[in-house]
Specification:
Layout: E1 4-19, H1 22-41, E2 46-51, E3 54-59, E4 62-67, E5 70-76, H2 78-88, E6 93-106, H3 112-126, E7 133-137, E8 143-147, E9 154-160, H4 161-167, H5 171-176, E10 180-188, H6 190-198, H7 205-219, H8 243-265, H9 268-274
Antiparallel strand pairs: 1-5, 1-6, 2-3, 3-4, 4-5, 6-10, 7-8, 8-9, 9-10
């Protein structure tokens, strides 16, 4: 049966930039603080962040680290897409960008990573020096193709987005991404900087990302299920579940049954005291 395809997302999905002048580092810190406040307001937790000698904090889709010679900023998801122009114009270097295309297949299929793995293996028979594929699968429908070396400047992941959400108990995301697969191209080194400088001036960003990922994957023996252009129904603005929502979900699933048992086993006054609600 022929699958129909709909491209739901086609955008920049990750950005790592460093700032090594005093003015640019100070501006990066101020921007990161402002963006992080909105994440915290939406329920994100502030956690420690360390990478490459940089130390700082992370909150949701924003990570900031500092060291004596400057600052490092990482943005993920649609924060990378929305703020690329602000970052690229001041960054000393952009060391990584990810471009992601999320496509829905109807009917859904679980064997896409395996099919692409076979495609890549056939490609290597003709071109032995081409990128090496790896396939990771689990018993719950999770499946990921890795193409290339993670340490290289180009690295492609193709994974079952719906299964990933279920594994993370992100049921809102699972409903949104039902039948979806994500093609995620990680670009590092000089090509990442060139992409970051080019990207803010592109008028049709979704079209550019779709064509770019499609062309790279096809050139490396993995023809995507989505076309080079078209089949788009871009749905901007969907964001992953916040930390607040995660905690509420955990309370509903794990704590609620215990509270119900206590309610049935003791009087109201004792229950209120045990839960620390007497104040």
């Amino acid at each position: 049966m022929q699958n129909s395809t709909t491209v739901l997302e086609s955008q920049l999905d990750w950005l790592t930039a460093s700032f090594h002048t005093r003015d640019s580092a100070d501006r990066a810190k101020a921007d990161a603080d402002r963006w992080a406040r909105s994440e915290v307001a939406d329920g994100a937790q502030v956690k420690p962040f360390r990478l490459g000698g940089y130390e700082g904090w992370q909150a949701g889709r924003v990570r900031l680290g500092t060291r004596l010679d400057g600052a490092l900023l990482q943005l993920s998801g649609d924060f990378a897409e929305r703020h690329i122009a602000d970052v690229a114009v001041r960054a000393t270097n952009v060391s990584r960008v990810d471009i992601a295309v999320t496509v829905r297949l109807e009917p859904a299929r679980e064997d896409l990573a395996r099919a692409h793995y076979d495609d890549a293996r056939e490609h290597r028979k003709v071109r032995p020096s081409s990128a090496r594929p790896e396939l990771h699968q689990d018993g719950d429908g999770g499946s990921t193709l890795y193409l290339g070396d993670r340490a290289s400047n180009w690295f492609l992941r193709v994974y079952n987005k719906h299964a990933e959400c279920l594994e993370n108990r992100d049921f809102e995301g699972a409903a949104h991404y039902e039948g979806c697969w994500r093609y995620e191209l990680e670009i590092k080194g000089p090509d990442a900087l060139r992409q970051a400088q080019l990207y803010p001036g592109i008028l049709d960003r979704p079209g550019y990302c779709q064509a770019y990922v499609h062309q790279w994957a096809e050139n490396h023996g993995v023809p995507p299920v989505f076309p080079y252009t078209g089949d788009q129904k871009i749905e901007p603005g969907f964001r992953r579940r916040s930390d607040r929502e995660t905690r509420l979900l955990w309370l509903a699933q794990s704590v609620k049954p215990a509270v119900q048992w206590l309610r049935d086993s003791t009087d109201r006054e004792t229950l209120v005291d045990l839960l620390g609600l007497s104040q």
